[in-house]
Amino acid sequence: MTEFYGLPNAGEFWHWTNALHFVLVGLAGGVALLAAYLHLKRHEEARRYTLWALALIALDLFVLWAESPARFRFTHIWLFLSFHPQSPIGWGAWGLALSFLTGGLLFLGKGPQRALAWAFLLFSLVALAYPGMALAVNLNRPLWNALLAGLFPLTALVLALALAALLGSPWAREPLRLFAGASLLLTALYPLTLAPEARGHLLEEGGFPFLLFLLLGLGAFQERLGPWMGLLSAAGLRALLVLVGQWQGFGL
Amino acid sequence: MPRYAMAIDLSLCVGCAACAVACKMENEVPPGVHRLWIRERELGVFPDLTVEFRPEQCLHCANPPCVPVCPTGASYQTKDGLVLVDPGKCIACGACVAACPYDARYLHPGGYVDKCTFCAHRLEKGGVPACVETCPTGCRAFGDLDDPESPVAKALKEAGRVDVLRPELGTQPKLFYLNAPSKKGLSQEREVRHD
Protein backbone atom coordinates (compact mmCIF):
# COMPACT_ATOMS: atom_id res chain seq x y z
CA MET A 1 0.00 0.00 0.00
CA THR A 2 1.25 3.46 -0.88
CA GLU A 3 0.26 6.67 0.83
CA PHE A 4 1.40 10.25 0.52
CA TYR A 5 1.85 13.42 2.43
CA GLY A 6 1.37 15.95 -0.33
CA LEU A 7 1.30 14.36 -3.77
CA PRO A 8 3.66 13.77 -6.67
CA ASN A 9 2.76 16.01 -9.61
CA ALA A 10 1.50 13.04 -11.57
CA GLY A 11 -1.69 14.54 -12.96
CA GLU A 12 -2.50 15.09 -16.61
CA PHE A 13 -0.27 17.77 -18.12
CA TRP A 14 -1.55 17.63 -21.71
CA HIS A 15 -5.30 18.02 -21.73
CA TRP A 16 -7.96 17.62 -24.44
CA THR A 17 -6.89 20.97 -25.87
CA ASN A 18 -3.40 19.61 -26.43
CA ALA A 19 -4.90 16.44 -27.89
CA LEU A 20 -6.83 18.68 -30.28
CA HIS A 21 -3.57 20.33 -31.28
CA PHE A 22 -2.01 16.92 -31.92
CA VAL A 23 -4.86 16.27 -34.38
CA LEU A 24 -4.65 19.73 -35.97
CA VAL A 25 -0.89 19.65 -36.36
CA GLY A 26 -1.25 16.28 -38.09
CA LEU A 27 -3.67 17.87 -40.54
CA ALA A 28 -1.52 20.98 -40.91
CA GLY A 29 1.73 19.09 -41.53
CA GLY A 30 0.04 16.52 -43.75
CA VAL A 31 -1.78 19.07 -45.91
CA ALA A 32 1.40 21.18 -46.14
CA LEU A 33 3.23 18.11 -47.40
CA LEU A 34 0.50 17.46 -49.97
CA ALA A 35 0.59 21.11 -51.06
CA ALA A 36 4.38 21.08 -51.43
CA TYR A 37 4.18 17.86 -53.44
CA LEU A 38 1.48 19.32 -55.67
CA HIS A 39 3.67 22.38 -56.26
CA LEU A 40 6.60 20.18 -57.23
CA LYS A 41 4.30 18.25 -59.59
CA ARG A 42 2.99 21.57 -60.95
CA HIS A 43 -0.49 20.25 -60.19
CA GLU A 44 -3.42 22.56 -60.80
CA GLU A 45 -4.64 22.12 -57.22
CA ALA A 46 -1.34 23.25 -55.69
CA ARG A 47 -2.51 26.75 -54.75
CA ARG A 48 -5.80 25.50 -53.34
CA TYR A 49 -4.02 23.10 -51.00
CA THR A 50 -1.42 25.68 -50.09
CA LEU A 51 -4.21 27.90 -48.86
CA TRP A 52 -5.62 25.00 -46.84
CA ALA A 53 -2.19 24.33 -45.38
CA LEU A 54 -1.75 27.99 -44.43
CA ALA A 55 -5.16 28.06 -42.77
CA LEU A 56 -4.53 24.83 -40.87
CA ILE A 57 -1.04 25.87 -39.73
CA ALA A 58 -2.42 29.22 -38.57
CA LEU A 59 -5.31 27.53 -36.79
CA ASP A 60 -2.98 25.09 -35.08
CA LEU A 61 -0.53 27.79 -34.02
CA PHE A 62 -3.46 29.80 -32.69
CA VAL A 63 -4.77 26.81 -30.72
CA LEU A 64 -1.25 26.21 -29.37
CA TRP A 65 -1.01 29.77 -28.14
CA ALA A 66 -4.61 29.98 -26.97
CA GLU A 67 -4.46 26.83 -24.86
CA SER A 68 -1.07 27.68 -23.37
CA PRO A 69 -1.24 28.87 -19.76
CA ALA A 70 1.61 31.23 -20.74
CA ARG A 71 -0.42 32.89 -23.51
CA PHE A 72 -0.64 36.35 -21.94
CA ARG A 73 2.93 36.28 -20.72
CA PHE A 74 3.98 36.33 -24.39
CA THR A 75 6.95 34.09 -23.73
CA HIS A 76 6.37 32.24 -27.01
CA ILE A 77 8.68 34.75 -28.67
CA TRP A 78 11.53 32.73 -27.12
CA LEU A 79 10.64 29.81 -29.40
CA PHE A 80 12.08 31.90 -32.21
CA LEU A 81 14.81 33.72 -30.33
CA SER A 82 16.55 30.49 -29.46
CA PHE A 83 17.46 27.27 -31.16
CA HIS A 84 17.23 23.97 -29.32
CA PRO A 85 17.86 21.15 -31.75
CA GLN A 86 17.27 18.47 -29.11
CA SER A 87 13.72 19.63 -28.52
CA PRO A 88 11.02 18.17 -30.80
CA ILE A 89 8.73 21.07 -29.90
CA GLY A 90 11.52 23.46 -30.88
CA TRP A 91 11.71 21.74 -34.26
CA GLY A 92 7.94 21.92 -34.52
CA ALA A 93 7.86 25.66 -33.86
CA TRP A 94 10.41 26.30 -36.60
CA GLY A 95 8.95 23.68 -38.94
CA LEU A 96 5.46 25.15 -38.75
CA ALA A 97 6.62 28.77 -38.92
CA LEU A 98 8.88 28.15 -41.91
CA SER A 99 6.19 26.03 -43.59
CA PHE A 100 3.87 28.99 -43.19
CA LEU A 101 6.46 31.36 -44.60
CA THR A 102 7.40 29.23 -47.61
CA GLY A 103 3.78 28.24 -48.21
CA GLY A 104 2.77 31.89 -48.04
CA LEU A 105 5.41 32.93 -50.57
CA LEU A 106 4.33 30.09 -52.86
CA PHE A 107 0.71 31.12 -52.57
CA LEU A 108 1.57 34.72 -53.36
CA GLY A 109 3.81 33.62 -56.21
CA LYS A 110 6.78 35.55 -54.82
CA GLY A 111 10.38 34.36 -54.89
CA PRO A 112 11.97 31.32 -56.55
CA GLN A 113 8.99 29.00 -56.74
CA ARG A 114 10.82 25.73 -57.33
CA ALA A 115 13.25 26.25 -54.46
CA LEU A 116 10.41 27.40 -52.21
CA ALA A 117 8.42 24.28 -53.02
CA TRP A 118 11.36 22.11 -52.00
CA ALA A 119 11.78 24.12 -48.79
CA PHE A 120 8.04 23.85 -48.14
CA LEU A 121 8.32 20.08 -48.55
CA LEU A 122 11.24 19.91 -46.14
CA PHE A 123 9.61 22.07 -43.46
CA SER A 124 6.31 20.22 -43.75
CA LEU A 125 8.19 16.97 -43.17
CA VAL A 126 9.59 18.49 -39.97
CA ALA A 127 6.09 19.53 -38.93
CA LEU A 128 4.87 16.04 -39.75
CA ALA A 129 7.61 14.31 -37.80
CA TYR A 130 7.79 16.33 -34.61
CA PRO A 131 4.57 15.39 -32.73
CA GLY A 132 5.42 11.70 -32.63
CA MET A 133 8.94 12.57 -31.57
CA ALA A 134 7.63 14.89 -28.85
CA LEU A 135 6.01 11.83 -27.31
CA ALA A 136 8.59 9.16 -28.11
CA VAL A 137 11.45 11.25 -26.71
CA ASN A 138 10.08 10.68 -23.18
CA LEU A 139 11.72 7.37 -22.39
CA ASN A 140 10.10 7.45 -18.94
CA ARG A 141 6.61 7.08 -20.44
CA PRO A 142 6.11 3.41 -21.26
CA LEU A 143 3.24 3.94 -23.69
CA TRP A 144 5.09 6.53 -25.77
CA ASN A 145 7.54 4.17 -27.35
CA ALA A 146 9.50 4.59 -30.56
CA LEU A 147 6.62 3.26 -32.67
CA LEU A 148 4.85 6.59 -32.21
CA ALA A 149 7.60 8.30 -34.19
CA GLY A 150 6.25 6.30 -37.14
CA LEU A 151 2.59 6.11 -36.25
CA PHE A 152 2.12 9.87 -35.91
CA PRO A 153 3.47 10.81 -39.36
CA LEU A 154 1.38 8.02 -40.89
CA THR A 155 -1.83 9.09 -39.17
CA ALA A 156 -1.05 12.70 -40.13
CA LEU A 157 -0.95 11.65 -43.78
CA VAL A 158 -4.21 9.75 -43.32
CA LEU A 159 -5.78 12.94 -41.90
CA ALA A 160 -4.48 15.06 -44.77
CA LEU A 161 -5.46 12.61 -47.51
CA ALA A 162 -8.88 12.05 -45.97
CA LEU A 163 -9.43 15.81 -45.98
CA ALA A 164 -8.28 15.94 -49.61
CA ALA A 165 -10.70 13.14 -50.49
CA LEU A 166 -13.51 15.03 -48.75
CA LEU A 167 -12.56 18.13 -50.73
CA GLY A 168 -13.19 16.08 -53.84
CA SER A 169 -9.66 15.45 -55.08
CA PRO A 170 -9.75 12.08 -56.82
CA TRP A 171 -5.98 11.54 -56.51
CA ALA A 172 -6.29 11.34 -52.71
CA ARG A 173 -8.27 8.09 -52.59
CA GLU A 174 -5.59 5.59 -53.48
CA PRO A 175 -2.81 6.94 -51.21
CA LEU A 176 -5.40 7.31 -48.44
CA ARG A 177 -6.01 3.57 -48.57
CA LEU A 178 -2.27 2.92 -48.64
CA PHE A 179 -1.44 5.08 -45.62
CA ALA A 180 -4.57 4.04 -43.74
CA GLY A 181 -3.50 0.43 -44.23
CA ALA A 182 0.02 1.14 -43.03
CA SER A 183 -1.13 3.10 -40.01
CA LEU A 184 -3.71 0.47 -39.08
CA LEU A 185 -1.09 -2.23 -39.30
CA LEU A 186 1.19 -0.29 -36.95
CA THR A 187 -1.75 0.49 -34.66
CA ALA A 188 -2.68 -3.18 -34.45
CA LEU A 189 0.92 -4.08 -33.69
CA TYR A 190 1.36 -1.25 -31.18
CA PRO A 191 -0.02 -3.05 -28.09
CA LEU A 192 2.32 -5.93 -28.83
CA THR A 193 5.31 -3.60 -28.69
CA LEU A 194 4.52 -2.62 -25.10
CA ALA A 195 5.69 -4.23 -21.89
CA PRO A 196 2.83 -6.21 -20.26
CA GLU A 197 2.12 -3.61 -17.56
CA ALA A 198 2.02 -0.81 -20.14
CA ARG A 199 -0.26 -2.86 -22.37
CA GLY A 200 -2.48 -3.46 -19.35
CA HIS A 201 -2.63 0.26 -18.71
CA LEU A 202 -3.52 1.00 -22.34
CA LEU A 203 -6.33 -1.55 -22.34
CA GLU A 204 -7.61 -0.50 -18.93
CA GLU A 205 -7.59 3.24 -19.62
CA GLY A 206 -8.33 3.31 -23.31
CA GLY A 207 -9.06 -0.21 -24.51
CA PHE A 208 -12.53 0.53 -25.84
CA PRO A 209 -11.70 3.71 -27.80
CA PHE A 210 -8.51 2.09 -29.06
CA LEU A 211 -10.48 -0.81 -30.49
CA LEU A 212 -13.14 1.55 -31.80
CA PHE A 213 -10.64 3.73 -33.68
CA LEU A 214 -8.94 0.64 -35.05
CA LEU A 215 -12.26 -0.67 -36.38
CA LEU A 216 -13.23 2.76 -37.74
CA GLY A 217 -9.92 2.77 -39.56
CA LEU A 218 -10.94 -0.37 -41.44
CA GLY A 219 -13.79 1.74 -42.78
CA ALA A 220 -11.23 3.90 -44.61
CA PHE A 221 -11.24 1.31 -47.39
CA GLN A 222 -14.93 1.82 -47.93
CA GLU A 223 -15.90 3.81 -51.01
CA ARG A 224 -18.38 6.39 -49.79
CA LEU A 225 -17.63 6.92 -46.09
CA GLY A 226 -13.94 6.02 -46.37
CA PRO A 227 -12.51 9.53 -45.90
CA TRP A 228 -14.71 10.23 -42.89
CA MET A 229 -13.74 6.92 -41.31
CA GLY A 230 -10.06 7.54 -41.96
CA LEU A 231 -10.31 11.04 -40.51
CA LEU A 232 -12.11 9.93 -37.36
CA SER A 233 -9.88 6.94 -36.82
CA ALA A 234 -6.61 8.83 -37.23
CA ALA A 235 -7.77 11.80 -35.16
CA GLY A 236 -9.14 9.60 -32.40
CA LEU A 237 -6.04 7.49 -32.25
CA ARG A 238 -3.71 10.49 -32.04
CA ALA A 239 -5.75 12.10 -29.28
CA LEU A 240 -6.09 8.82 -27.38
CA LEU A 241 -2.37 8.08 -27.40
CA VAL A 242 -1.58 11.59 -26.16
CA LEU A 243 -4.07 11.30 -23.33
CA VAL A 244 -3.51 7.74 -22.08
CA GLY A 245 0.25 7.89 -22.55
CA GLN A 246 0.71 10.40 -19.71
CA TRP A 247 1.72 7.64 -17.38
CA GLN A 248 5.00 6.90 -15.66
CA GLY A 249 4.55 3.19 -15.17
CA PHE A 250 5.04 1.50 -11.82
CA GLY A 251 8.73 2.21 -11.41
CA LEU A 252 8.43 4.83 -8.69
CA MET B 1 32.26 25.15 -9.03
CA PRO B 2 30.35 23.08 -6.52
CA ARG B 3 28.29 20.10 -7.63
CA TYR B 4 25.28 20.34 -5.37
CA ALA B 5 23.61 17.15 -4.17
CA MET B 6 21.36 15.91 -1.44
CA ALA B 7 21.23 12.69 0.50
CA ILE B 8 18.31 11.41 2.55
CA ASP B 9 18.94 8.65 5.04
CA LEU B 10 15.78 6.55 4.89
CA SER B 11 16.78 4.64 8.03
CA LEU B 12 16.23 7.91 9.89
CA CYS B 13 13.33 9.45 7.97
CA VAL B 14 10.00 9.13 9.79
CA GLY B 15 7.95 10.74 7.03
CA CYS B 16 6.81 13.61 9.26
CA ALA B 17 6.67 15.93 6.25
CA ALA B 18 8.34 18.80 8.07
CA CYS B 19 10.52 19.18 4.97
CA ALA B 20 7.47 19.30 2.72
CA VAL B 21 5.83 21.96 4.88
CA ALA B 22 9.05 23.98 5.18
CA CYS B 23 9.33 23.90 1.39
CA LYS B 24 5.73 24.98 0.98
CA MET B 25 6.31 27.99 3.22
CA GLU B 26 9.80 28.93 2.06
CA ASN B 27 8.95 28.82 -1.62
CA GLU B 28 5.31 29.84 -1.38
CA VAL B 29 4.30 26.76 -3.35
CA PRO B 30 0.65 27.19 -4.39
CA PRO B 31 -2.11 24.85 -3.20
CA GLY B 32 -2.54 21.62 -5.13
CA VAL B 33 1.05 21.32 -6.35
CA HIS B 34 4.17 20.18 -4.55
CA ARG B 35 7.89 20.68 -4.83
CA LEU B 36 8.35 18.03 -2.19
CA TRP B 37 6.12 15.23 -0.95
CA ILE B 38 6.44 12.07 1.12
CA ARG B 39 5.74 8.61 -0.22
CA GLU B 40 5.02 6.06 2.45
CA ARG B 41 4.93 2.43 1.51
CA GLU B 42 4.34 -0.69 3.56
CA LEU B 43 6.20 -3.72 2.32
CA GLY B 44 6.32 -7.36 3.22
CA VAL B 45 4.10 -9.66 5.26
CA PHE B 46 3.96 -10.03 9.04
CA PRO B 47 6.28 -10.67 10.78
CA ASP B 48 8.64 -9.44 8.07
CA LEU B 49 7.21 -5.95 7.69
CA THR B 50 8.93 -2.84 6.46
CA VAL B 51 7.74 0.70 6.02
CA GLU B 52 9.59 3.04 3.75
CA PHE B 53 9.22 6.79 4.23
CA ARG B 54 10.54 8.42 1.12
CA PRO B 55 10.58 12.17 0.60
CA GLU B 56 10.56 12.93 -3.11
CA GLN B 57 11.39 16.08 -5.03
CA CYS B 58 13.46 17.15 -8.00
CA LEU B 59 16.62 15.06 -8.02
CA HIS B 60 18.56 17.68 -9.97
CA CYS B 61 19.76 14.93 -12.27
CA ALA B 62 23.25 15.25 -13.69
CA ASN B 63 21.73 14.11 -16.99
CA PRO B 64 18.30 15.74 -16.75
CA PRO B 65 15.82 14.65 -19.45
CA CYS B 66 13.73 17.77 -18.75
CA VAL B 67 16.39 20.17 -20.07
CA PRO B 68 17.01 19.12 -23.70
CA VAL B 69 13.29 18.83 -24.51
CA CYS B 70 12.63 22.47 -23.60
CA PRO B 71 12.07 24.44 -26.84
CA THR B 72 12.91 27.86 -25.39
CA GLY B 73 15.81 27.18 -23.04
CA ALA B 74 13.68 28.07 -20.00
CA SER B 75 14.61 24.72 -18.49
CA TYR B 76 18.33 24.78 -17.85
CA GLN B 77 21.11 23.31 -15.78
CA THR B 78 23.43 25.60 -13.85
CA LYS B 79 27.19 25.15 -13.64
CA ASP B 80 26.80 23.91 -10.07
CA GLY B 81 24.36 21.25 -11.14
CA LEU B 82 20.98 22.75 -10.28
CA VAL B 83 18.15 22.18 -12.72
CA LEU B 84 16.09 25.36 -12.81
CA VAL B 85 13.30 27.04 -14.78
CA ASP B 86 13.42 30.61 -16.03
CA PRO B 87 9.76 31.67 -15.91
CA GLY B 88 10.55 34.57 -18.26
CA LYS B 89 11.23 32.09 -21.07
CA CYS B 90 8.79 29.30 -20.15
CA ILE B 91 5.86 28.81 -22.52
CA ALA B 92 4.33 26.16 -20.22
CA CYS B 93 4.30 23.63 -23.05
CA GLY B 94 4.80 20.79 -20.60
CA ALA B 95 7.55 19.06 -22.55
CA CYS B 96 9.70 19.00 -19.40
CA VAL B 97 6.81 17.69 -17.32
CA ALA B 98 6.43 14.87 -19.83
CA ALA B 99 10.15 14.13 -19.76
CA CYS B 100 10.61 14.13 -15.99
CA PRO B 101 10.49 10.52 -14.76
CA TYR B 102 9.86 11.66 -11.19
CA ASP B 103 6.73 13.86 -11.34
CA ALA B 104 8.84 16.64 -9.88
CA ARG B 105 7.50 19.38 -12.15
CA TYR B 106 4.17 21.14 -12.10
CA LEU B 107 2.40 23.97 -13.81
CA HIS B 108 2.47 27.02 -11.57
CA PRO B 109 -0.83 28.95 -11.65
CA GLY B 110 1.27 31.92 -12.78
CA GLY B 111 1.54 30.24 -16.19
CA TYR B 112 4.96 28.61 -16.07
CA VAL B 113 6.47 25.33 -15.00
CA ASP B 114 7.95 25.23 -11.52
CA LYS B 115 9.80 22.74 -9.35
CA CYS B 116 12.26 22.30 -6.48
CA THR B 117 15.27 24.59 -6.86
CA PHE B 118 17.35 23.10 -4.03
CA CYS B 119 16.50 26.53 -2.56
CA ALA B 120 18.94 28.25 -4.91
CA HIS B 121 18.09 31.58 -3.28
CA ARG B 122 19.38 30.23 0.04
CA LEU B 123 22.47 28.63 -1.47
CA GLU B 124 23.45 32.00 -2.91
CA LYS B 125 23.64 33.34 0.63
CA GLY B 126 25.64 30.38 1.85
CA GLY B 127 22.65 28.65 3.44
CA VAL B 128 21.18 25.18 2.99
CA PRO B 129 17.76 24.28 1.55
CA ALA B 130 14.80 24.86 3.88
CA CYS B 131 13.98 21.13 3.93
CA VAL B 132 17.47 20.30 5.16
CA GLU B 133 17.41 22.98 7.80
CA THR B 134 14.08 21.92 9.25
CA CYS B 135 14.50 18.12 9.26
CA PRO B 136 14.01 17.01 12.88
CA THR B 137 15.72 13.63 12.47
CA GLY B 138 18.73 15.02 10.66
CA CYS B 139 18.22 12.53 7.86
CA ARG B 140 18.97 15.06 5.13
CA ALA B 141 22.48 16.05 4.11
CA PHE B 142 23.32 18.65 1.52
CA GLY B 143 26.45 20.04 -0.05
CA ASP B 144 29.06 19.76 -2.73
CA LEU B 145 29.72 16.25 -4.03
CA ASP B 146 33.26 17.27 -4.98
CA ASP B 147 34.13 18.41 -1.46
CA PRO B 148 34.93 15.34 0.66
CA GLU B 149 34.27 17.39 3.79
CA SER B 150 30.73 18.37 2.78
CA PRO B 151 27.84 16.78 4.73
CA VAL B 152 26.54 15.05 1.62
CA ALA B 153 29.91 13.56 0.68
CA LYS B 154 30.41 12.30 4.22
CA ALA B 155 26.92 10.84 4.41
CA LEU B 156 27.42 9.03 1.11
CA LYS B 157 30.73 7.64 2.28
CA GLU B 158 29.32 6.36 5.54
CA ALA B 159 26.10 4.90 4.11
CA GLY B 160 25.60 1.16 4.12
CA ARG B 161 23.67 1.41 0.91
CA VAL B 162 23.02 4.15 -1.64
CA ASP B 163 20.13 4.14 -4.11
CA VAL B 164 18.60 6.49 -6.63
CA LEU B 165 15.14 6.48 -8.20
CA ARG B 166 14.77 4.85 -11.61
CA PRO B 167 18.51 4.50 -12.24
CA GLU B 168 17.77 2.54 -15.43
CA LEU B 169 16.76 5.76 -17.18
CA GLY B 170 20.29 7.12 -17.06
CA THR B 171 19.28 10.42 -15.47
CA GLN B 172 22.04 10.22 -12.85
CA PRO B 173 20.06 11.74 -9.99
CA LYS B 174 21.87 13.89 -7.42
CA LEU B 175 19.38 13.10 -4.71
CA PHE B 176 20.62 9.94 -3.07
CA TYR B 177 18.63 7.69 -0.76
CA LEU B 178 20.78 6.11 1.92
CA ASN B 179 20.15 2.91 3.85
CA ALA B 180 16.83 1.98 2.24
CA PRO B 181 14.80 -0.06 4.74
CA SER B 182 13.96 -2.88 2.34
CA LYS B 183 16.67 -5.38 1.46
CA LYS B 184 15.59 -4.97 -2.16
CA GLY B 185 16.39 -1.26 -2.09
CA LEU B 186 13.94 1.50 -2.95
CA SER B 187 10.40 0.25 -3.27
CA GLN B 188 8.48 0.37 -6.53
CA GLU B 189 4.77 0.64 -7.11
CA ARG B 190 4.71 -2.69 -8.93
CA GLU B 191 5.81 -4.38 -5.70
CA VAL B 192 2.72 -3.29 -3.80
CA ARG B 193 0.10 -3.62 -6.51
CA HIS B 194 -2.21 -6.55 -6.00
CA ASP B 195 -4.77 -7.65 -8.54
UniProtKB/TrEMBL annotation, chain B:
Signal peptide: none annotated. SUPFAM superfamilies: 4Fe-4S ferredoxins (SSF54862). It comes from the Bacteria. One of its GO terms (molecular function) is 4 iron, 4 sulfur cluster binding. Residues 4-34, 49-80, 81-110 form the 4Fe-4S ferredoxin-type domain. Keywords: 4Fe-4S, Iron, Iron-sulfur, Metal-binding. This is Fe-S-cluster-containing hydrogenase subunit. The lineage of its organism: Bacteria, Thermotogati, Deinococcota, Deinococci, Thermales.
